[in-house]
Design goal:
The protein contains 16 helices and 12 strands. The chain starts with a helix and ends with a helix. About 6% of the residues have low confidence.
């Protein structure tokens, strides 16, 4: 009877500890910045307690090994957390600068208490309209950068002064792209679209459709779904796609933040939109799993391997070509121009092997492609001169040279 009573008491004790461990895990998942670190810690302690109280040798061995495994996973989760610290800020679109391996503190603060971006039904996510964002980054070496992003009523970053905005224009110039077009880490009057407007003496209304983490799939989706025609009222003179090689991964869903974006695929040689990257996932479960640093790393790797770099490059080529065809149908008098960077930061060497393929195939499809390394021949050797310190995005000088190039290109035609 005494042994039976002790067994019941220990069993109740274990159930109480189990429920307490479960409660701590749920609270960590909801409120803590590194939830899986804490969850794995408390579950490791739980199984260690079972190891201490187990009577049979087999039970002790099993509980000890499980506790050890859980503790090791917790250490792995904690180790990865330093590599993705910036991913835990308000925007999931900013990653640590791989070129200097420094952990940075990033903030995106709205002057009107709005979120930087919102869930967009077509593009996946987009800047919140009528918003002003102050972007700050602070590095361990003491360097601090600050930039202000003004988003207009159309949900686009402004590309001209207020006085020029009120003018009536006959023609426009449209820019598509990612943070390189949006202008991460530079102020409103230092972005590529804005500086092009200055070089053109504001003879065109300029539109900046770029945003953090975008790729050409957002450009095509915006064209196909009438987002561009709803916003752009003037006849486009030139439409620019400003790309980087990481867009190869983005069209294949190769980053965690891409999961909301429009998904395109080649089926029997034809390009079709097959929904969004998160259509086949359970949103709630996915959101919880993405709080794990290890899961994000694995998810990125798996999504990249769904398509080889070669296949992803072919998909990008077809998306850009489809954008050109759409533009020719909607705006037959417009010219479509592609600007492409060959390298950025410590990019995957596999992407460099796709660069010549992309350039060659786009040109074979009749697309005007201009390499940034030809516009700024020394940027790879003079990174400090043309890239924002620590952040690694192009600085105003780089954008100025590209804007001047586009202006001269238009003048020659």
């Amino acid at each position: 009877m005494i042994r039976a009573f002790k067994f019941i008491k220990i069993a109740k004790y274990r159930w109480l500890v189990f429920l307490l461990t479960l409660a701590i895990s749920l609270l960590a998942l909801r409120y803590m910045s590194m939830p899986y670190v804490w969850m794995l810690l408390v579950w490791g302690l739980f199984f260690f307690l079972l190891f201490l109280t187990a009577k049979k040798t087999a039970g002790k061995v099993a509980c000890f090994n499980i506790a050890l495994l859980v503790f090791l996973l917790g250490c792995l989760e904690f180790a990865f957390s330093d590599l993705v610290t910036s991913f835990l800020n308000k925007s999931p679109l900013v990653t640590a600068d791989a070129s200097n391996q420094k952990t940075k503190q990033v903030e995106f603060v709205s002057t009107s208490d709005k979120d930087f971006y919102y869930r967009h039904p077509v593009l996946g996510y987009a800047p919140t309209p009528n918003n002003v964002i102050r972007h700050t980054e602070t590095y361990p070496d003491g360097h601090h950068l600050e930039a202000v992003y003004t988003i207009n009523s159309d949900g686009l970053r402004i590309a001209c002064p207020p006085a020029q905005e009120k003018k009536i224009y006959d023609e426009s110039v449209i820019f598509f792209g990612c943070s390189f077009t949006f202008g991460e880490a530079v102020n409103d009057d230092e972005t590529l679209p804005y500086l092009f407007g200055k070089y053109s003496d504001w003879n065109y209304r300029v539109y900046n459709f770029g945003f953090e983490g975008y790729g050409p799939h957002q450009m095509l989706a915006a064209l196909e779904n009438g987002i561009v025609t709803d916003i752009v009222q003037e006849s486009p003179k030139v439409i620019v796609y400003h790309g980087i090689m990481d867009h190869v991964y983005r069209v294949a869903g190769g980053h965690s933040w891409i999961k909301y974006g429009p998904k395109y695929a080649l089926q029997n040689g034809d390009l079709v939109q097959v929904g969004h990257f998160d259509d086949d996932k359970t949103p709630f479960v996915e959101r919880q799993l993405l709080k794990s640093f290890v899961y994000k790393k694995i998810a990125d790797g798996l999504s990249r391997k769904m398509l080889s770099e070669q296949e992803a490059a072919e998909l990008l080529i077809e998306i850009v070509a489809a954008s050109k065809n759409n533009i020719e149908q909607r705006y037959p008098d417009s010219e479509f121009v592609v600007l492409l960077w060959d390298k950025w930061k410590n990019e995957d060497p596999a992407l460099s092997q796709c660069y010549d393929q992309i350039i060659d195939q786009l040109r074979k499809k009749g697309i005007s492609v201009h390499e940034v390394k030809s516009i700024i021949p020394t940027y790879a050797q003079e990174r400090d001169k043309f890239l924002v310190r620590n952040n690694g995005h192009p600085n105003p000088l780089a954008y100025d040279k590209i804007a001047e190039f586009i202006s001269k290109l238009m003048a020659e035609e």
